Every structure is written in C-alpha cells, then in structure tokens.
Amino acid sequence: QVQLVESGGGVVQPGRSLRLSCAASGFTFSGYGMHWVRQAPGQGLEWVAAVSFDGSSKYFADSVKGRFTISRDNSKNTLSLQMNSLRAEDTAVYYCAKDVYRSPTASLDCWGQGTLVTVSS
Amino acid sequence: SSELTQDPAVSVALGQTVRITCQGDTLSSYYASWYQQKPGQAPVLVIYGKNNRPSGIPDRFSGSSSGNTASLTITGAQAEDEADYYCNSRDSSVYPLVFGGGTKLTVL
User: Fold this and answer.
1) How confident is the model at residue A35 (pLDDT cuts 50, 70, 90)?
2) Which end of chain B has fewer CB atoms within 10 angstroms, the N or the C?
3) Collapsing DSSP states into helix, strand and coil, what is residue A18?
4) pLDDT 10s digits, A51-96
5) B15 CB-contact burial (10 Å; exposed 0-12 / middle 13-18 / buried 19+)
6) With contact defined as beta carbons under 8 Å apart, do A70 and A36 qualify?
7) So what's the pLDDT on residue B66?
8) Rounded-to-integer distance, Cα A16 and Cα A73, Å
9) B50-81: b (≥16 Cβ within 10 Å) or e
10) Distance (Å) from the C-alpha of residue B28 to the closest C-alpha of chain A?
11) Residue B22 to residue B14: CA distance in whole angstroms
C-alpha cells in the first residue's frame, strides 16, 4: 500500500537549520508531484512547498520562500525539505503528501503521519 | 495571495444531510479539494476535481461548485464523519496552494 514516512523533526533554536525527509513506498514515486504541508499546534493546514514529478519545477509559500528548499531523489524514493533560518512561527507538524498528478495540483491523495518541528530557544 | 473562507463549525443530526462550504475568488477558476482530519491523524482526501472520490471514500461524500463557492455534501452523516474538514485550491497566481481555515463538523 502507499506509504509516506517523515523523519528529521525535533527541537531547534531560532536561526538554525533542519532537514526533513520523507520515505515513499507502495507507488511509483517518480510519477507524481509531492508536497510539504504543515500544521501549527491547534491550527489549520498550511501548504509549504511542492515539487514536480521530475524535480524540475519547485514552488514555495511566501512564508518560507528564500529559507526553505524542496528536493527529491527518485532513485531513493525520497522527498526532502531543507529548512534554514528557522523561526518560532515555523513550529508545526510537517506532513509529506503525494499529489494525484505528475505536476503539483491541489489534490493530495496520500499523507504521511507527520513529524513535529519545534523552534525554540 | 487569495483566501478561502470556511464556517468554523457546523453540526448535523445523525443520518441527515450537511453541506460544508468554502468561499474564495480562486474557486471561480479552479476546483476545490476537500480533506477530512480526525484528532491526532493526518488529513485524508475525500473529494477532488469536479466531484471525484478517491478509492475507499464512501459515496455519501460529494462535491459541487458554483461561482466562487465550493461545497462538500455529506448525505446521511454518520458518527464517524465527525471531524475537521478543510478545502484547498490553487491560488489565482502562478501556483501556491491555499487552504481554508477548516470546519469542525459535529454529528449529533
């Protein structure tokens, strides 16, 4: 079955960096767009970033543009999110999600269980 | 960027029909997708595109759209449908996705 497993979350000081990973299995990873979506404690969902099936197109929310980078390794079925210059407002559960299509759309049909990132001194 | 507006809370009697709405300018150009999220769990896609249900989603869930409003209808709500529901759509600009603030559905 389709499975996404995030890792790399933890507690980090403001201004530092963290790298999240998402291991995909059960589907042809190289055939679909992928996303990161986050959810601050007790809050709603916020889309963070997306990448096309082949990694050629990348998109970011204004709130993370210039600080976060999304990448994928289709040979290892892995999605990554490099987060730099972290701020307290980046504290959230970060979900990896699969798109229904090759290029990112608004339809995310499989989600991981999430990894918690806490930015605090 | 555009915004999507949802009612914060909606309630429905067991077995009755409920409509959850999502309003935003971008919805006149793009379809909304709908997600169900139960406490402590990841979101689950329930409707996407014009009115498509992923495999495993009961047919009591349906979607529709008119102008700048998208709707998720649950026909014959069940106790297990009690959850937060989020809409999302493409923004009207180059790409970014935008999510609505979510609707907490209570089944009475």
Assistant:
1) very high
2) C
3) strand
4) 999 999 999 999 999 999 999 999 999 999 999 999 999 999 999 9
5) exposed
6) yes
7) 95
8) 24
9) eebbeeeeeeebbbebeebebbbbbeebeeeb
10) 15
11) 23
> A interface toward B at CB cutoff 8 Å?
35, 37, 44-47, 50, 59-62, 95, 100, 104-114
CB B107 within 8 A of CB B10: no
Contacts of residue B37 in chain A, CB cutoff 8 Å? Answer: 45
Give the CA angle between residues B64, B43, A90 to the nearest 5°: 115
Helix (H, G, I), strand (E, B) or coil at A32: coil
What's the confidence (pLDDT) of residue B96? 76
pLDDT in tens, B55-99: 999 999 999 999 999 999 999 999 999 999 999 998 766 567 899
Smallest CA-to-CA distance from B32 within B16, B21, B43 is with B21
Pairing of strands B18-23, B69-74: antiparallel
Distance CA B59, CA B37 (A): 18
